[in-house]
Amino acid sequence: MRNFCVIPAALIMAMPISALADDCAAPPRPVFEIAGEDLDVAGFTALTEMLIEFDEQSIAYRNCLDVAIEAREEGWVDALGAYNQASATQTEVYERYVEVSDEFLAATEKRAAEAAEDQRVTSEEMAEAHLEALSEEPSASDVDMSDSDADDLDE
């Protein structure tokens, strides 16, 4: 049976940069603590931009680690561990983003349906009020004409 040494992610991320590879800096992990249903469009856009920035920084970080891994310089095993951890972290961040995105989309659809229903009710109420107003206006057939008015029409 093989024994594997598991290095906790926090320990890898806390190791001095020089121990992994020169000039490699892990990007800060974005935190998506807000529920998707609590986001408006601007908030969701900001969240997406944060994910894109994290992705770009993660790519740069892994590219930096690649240099140490490929050169097999001192610390390349640590760089490989950091690379794997960065990939795992990126996957976790993406999974959380998808959850928040799904929550946001469901909430947006619900709000749109509620707004459409409110508009339907308002339109229905306005139509009923308009019909009622029309039914209260006297029509030509409702006007009582006296005999003198009728005589005037005959002449």
Question: Can you give me a brief rundown of this structure?
Answer:
The chain has a domain of 95 residues.
Give a structural overview:
It contains five helices and no strands. The chain has a domain at 36-130. 12% of the residues are buried. By secondary structure, it is mainly alpha-helical.
Observed structural traits:
mainly alpha; 5 helices; rod-shaped; disordered N terminus; 155 residues
Tally the helices: what do you get?
A: 5
Count of DSSP strands:
0
Low-confidence stretches: 1-20
Helix share bin:
over 70%
Q: For the report, how would you describe the main beta sheet?
A: none
Rg from C-alpha positions? 35 Å
From the spread of the alpha carbons, the general shape counts as: rod-shaped
Distance between the termini: 121 Å
Judged by helices, strands and strand pairing, the structural class is mainly alpha
SSE succession:
HHHHH
